[in-house]
Structures are given as structure tokens and as C-alpha cells.
């Protein structure tokens, strides 16, 4: 049997509840004592009850938060790549299979969503170009 980890992170919407895992009892039952709650968005770590987090616990939690943020970032990027695929599939559907009723049902919502997305993308691209131009000008001075 593989050895259990010392800590378990129960994923929650904004982070996790952190438990210390122990089997150091007579029955060798797994005990999980909640030691903290982590908010991944704002980085808050709140000890559970009267528990005072040790340096080791703080270190384990910080490492988990870094790894979790990386996983969530990868998922976000993957979701965007999927959205591009869905846009292409939607285009093909609209061109080849959609009925007039189908198109009537989705056209306005799609056009507004695409207009909103286009506006944000164009503005963000312009911001990046301006920032790069300023950085290039400052580097040349």
C-alpha cells in the first residue's frame, strides 16, 4: 500500500480546506484534522479554529497554492482554445446545417457576444502595442 500524504486539500470554489492526514492511532484509521482554509483568489490563509500554522504547514500550503494557480491557468487557456474550436464549428453549423428558425434563435445573442469579444480583444491589442512602443522608445533613449 502506498503511503498517504501528510496533507489533503479539499478543493472548494475559491480555494481549499486543508487537512492534516494522520494514521497514528490504535486502529490505524485515517484521521483528517482541518487546519486551514485557503482562498486562491486573494491568497488568504485562515487557520481553522485555534490552530496555529507551523512553518512547514505554511510552506506546504504556499506550494499547493502555486501549483493550483498553474493548473487553473492551464485550464483557462485550454478553455479559450476550445472556444475558438466552438466558434469554428458554429460557423460551419450556421453555414451548412442550421435552419432559419435555429438561426433566428441564436443570431442576436451570438452577434452581441462576438461584438463584445471583438471590442475587448481590439482594445487589449491596442494597449499591448502602445506599451511595447513605449518600452521600445525608452530602450532607445
Walk me through the structure.
The protein has 141 residues and is α+β, with helices and mostly antiparallel strands. Helix content is 59%, strand content 18%. The mean pLDDT is 94.
- Mean pLDDT, as a whole number? 94
Tell me the major beta sheet.
4 strands, antiparallel
Measured on Cα atoms, how large is the radius of gyration? 25 Å
Number of extended strands = 4
- Tally of contiguous helical segments: 2
Strands, helices and their partners?
Blueprint: E1 7-12, E2 15-22, E3 31-39, E4 45-47, H1 55-96, H2 100-140
Antiparallel strand pairs: 1-2, 2-3, 3-4
Short description:
This protein has 2 helices and 4 strands. The chain is α+β, with helices and mostly antiparallel strands.
Brief descriptors of the model:
59% helix; flat; alpha+beta; 141 residues
Amino acid at each position: 500500500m502506498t503511503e498517504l500524504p501528510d496533507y489533503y486539500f479539499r478543493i472548494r470554489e475559491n480555494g481549499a480546506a486543508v487537512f492534516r492526514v494522520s494514521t497514528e492511532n490504535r486502529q490505524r484509521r485515517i484521521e483528517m484534522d482541518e487546519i486551514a482554509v485557503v482562498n486562491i483568489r486573494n491568497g488568504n490563509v485562515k487557520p481553522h479554529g485555534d490552530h496555529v500554522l507551523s512553518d512547514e504547514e505554511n510552506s506546504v500550503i504556499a506550494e499547493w497554492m502555486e501549483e493550483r494557480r498553474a493548473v487553473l491557468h492551464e485550464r483557462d487557456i485550454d478553455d479559450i482554445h476550445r472556444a475558438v474550436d466552438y466558434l469554428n464549428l458554429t460557423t460551419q453549423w450556421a453555414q451548412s446545417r442550421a435552419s432559419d428558425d435555429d438561426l433566428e434563435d441564436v443570431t442576436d445573442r451570438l452577434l452581441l457576444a462576438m461584438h463584445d469579444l471583438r471590442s475587448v480583444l481590439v482594445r487589449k491589442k491596442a494597449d499591448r502595442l502602445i506599451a511595447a512602443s513605449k518600452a521600445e522608445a525608452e530602450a532607445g533613449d
